Amino acid sequence: MSKLYLYQQKNEKRKKFLEKLDSELIVRSECNRTEENLFATAENLIINFLSDPVHDLPIYSFNLFSDINSRLEQNLSDDILARIVYKISNVYKIVRIEEKKTLDEEKFFKIVEIDSTALAAYMKKILKRKLNDSSEFKINKIKQTKKGKVSLTEKIENLLASPLVSEYEPRLLALEINELLGKMTTVEKLELEHFKSAKSHVQEYCPNGTKIDCCRDLIDRGMLQKKCDKIHFKRIIKPHTDISLGDCSFLNTCYNMNNCKYIHYEVDMQDVDQELLTNSSSTLSRLSKIKIPPQWIQCDLRTFDMTILGKFSVIMADPPWDIHMELPYGTMADDEMKKLDVPSLQDEGYIFLWVTGRAMELGRECLKEWNYERCDELIWVKTNQLQRIIRTGRTGHWLNHGKEHCLIGVKGKPNPDLFNTGLDCDTIVAEVRATSHKPDEVYGLIERLSPGTRKCELFGRPHNLRENWITLGNQLDGVRLLEPDLVKKFKVKYPDGNAMPQIKKPDSS
Fold first, then answer.
1. Which of 72, 107, 453, 469 has the most crowded CB, counting CB atoms within 10 A?
2. Cα–chain-centroid distance for residue 200?
3. Given this model, what pLDDT does residue 150 score?
4. Residue 59 main-chain phi, psi, to 5 deg
5. How far is the C-alpha of 486 from the C-alpha of 463, rounded, in Å?
């Protein structure tokens, strides 16, 4: 029974394939010679487009149709070209297509996969030619479809040249297996639901920048009737601005913005969703079951007694490394950094240590000195105000630095019930702001890694203050502690409430 069933299944698939082929032949027979030549030319141009390695996947339908019509003597409608592409996908199994919809419910598709074996077989068997090294061919050498009814001989030749069920069934099975492997497991879905925001707190920037450039792009793509819902920028034109000079390299981080003659930008607030703007601050706090307001201590970490703070699950530090460059803040010597009493803050857990330049090696030495083992690394790819990759950074001896590294160390054997590993990516793409101001996205990453636990940040500043975090640094304003045990220990150690080292006045005598 199993063999008979398989035989019947193969016959049914072959019948469906023949029906599709017959329907295509009938459509061709009903067209006149001009239309046949035009359709055949369009089909061959599409094959030529697909075989050109210059074009990267995915290939969008509107880009494909625009390129094909630019090469035809007479333009074809998108529906006709779409039929040709669907035939290439459904009958010849050369490409895999995903259908999409625009904001106006207009359908389009994108080609996400090209089967090079099927493409080569098509060009060799159907077009009666071989694919050369440059993947190009001349349209006038392609065999044209004959007018009138298709003979039985031609039907048989086309059928023999078409892929067999046994040839494309393994490919379909492989696609199904890949799709199955790409699906999320039940555990992953539960974790996603736990950390999923009730409402989107992200609004994208338009890649075109200003509204004028966005309109020009829509005109070029023939989509002027569509409305862009993303955030745009406005040019800041002052009396001293010289438009011919172009954009300022530093944009909103320019030190001389009031007198700079280059063009600067600001966010067009008309595009910003005010509801998202007011509610975005509550995203991280929703993840934490335990919510302790921000705590901080103004202190000199070289002399501060860290043993009174207790233990933390995660530590983050952005030390003032001595990277042998002129910096707008004071730095610490290598030996001073290694002698910091970081080991007393943690028995087991993770540390996030920001490094740059020569501190890449020094940071690893510090982790080893503090009894940590480097387990991973986080990369911050820097973008400017217009969300473009920075190419003229202010740091770097030989190359302009467009990224920063954060070493991740592990100590002991952290309790897996307290930490969620494998949730986030090791790359953050975020905008550069003030000097040494790290991206806020790292706090969300750490909170998802260890929600609701005690965390400590070293060398912090006022903008670093967060719930469930104790921030230490000499640029903070005074002391704010809320945990009763910690308040008691701090008062015993520092009765006057001042953790900064006292500067002794010289004896007047």
1. 469
2. 16
3. 59
4. -105, 120
5. 23
